[in-house]
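Write out the bound-state structure for magnesium ion.
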Amino acid sequence: MIRQFFGWQSTPFTKEIPTSQLYPSASFQECVARLNYMAKTRSFGLVTGEIGAGKSTAIRALRDGLDLTKYRFMYLCDSSLKPRDFYRELLHQFGITPQFLRSEAKRQFESAVWDFYEGQQKIAVVVIDEAHLLQGDMLQEIRFLTNFQIDSVSPLSLIMVGQPELRATLQMRLFKPITQRMNIRYHLGGLELDETRKYVEHQLQVAGARHPVFTTEAIDAVYAHTRGIAREVNNVCTACLLDAVVRKEKLIDAIHVARILTEYKEH
Ligand SMILES: Nc1ncnc2c1ncn2[C@@H]1O[C@H](COP(=O)(O)OP(=O)(O)O)[C@@H](O)[C@H]1O
Ligand SMILES: [Mg+2]
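---
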């Protein structure tokens, strides 16, 4: 509806945006750079950020940028993951059929990672997304992965990603061994005001827009409400675009944004 009405090639503000066309805000680029560094140095890392700040998107950018002749990217994003399924899932992603017993699957995974590193000189990059939702027994299991080294050489990179409370969880005594080894951390915050303006323009350009749609005041109102959190900016902008379609007008001003935001609050 939006695409047809505005005559664009694609719909802006959706999660389908290709990684080659993401908006390169300073903090987003820094996040992706650190993720790459964690992979390259086979480090353990932690990335936190509010819901919708762009964490999973940064992970996608990492994945798409990895040289597949050197890395194997493994992604887990299942809050109800049980220790037993953890190794099964990782082995599947390695292309190995897991043994039935958990202890065996664990050993299989360990030897696969070592063989990958020593035999093939490749690095397994294990990313655990939404890690703030994991239960204690899963975190214990992840603790095991951090012991996965010989003479301080780690064969893999382990990256935990989650909402800010993950940091506090990992501070607990039980998980200190994990945090102690997590030498690279990054907190992805929201966009700044000027970045939010550029972000909105960027999204429209990627969709194929040739004219601005939001006035500066309109974007400022979006920023005030969303604090530059990408997913929220996307939601508000989409609601405004749909409203513009209904109004049959191709310009969105602060007054329209204000009305949309009031409707938001009422529901
Ligand atoms: N740099 C960016 N450029 C374009 N879109 C982005 C960018 N960062 C985040 N987004 C968009 O914002 C939304 C939320 O991002 P997501 O990575 O799912 O957040 P999180 O994982 O932190 O909850 C997604 O639709 C995503 O496409
Ligand atoms: Mg996410």
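---
The first strand starts at residue 44 and ends at 49.
The mean pLDDT is 93.
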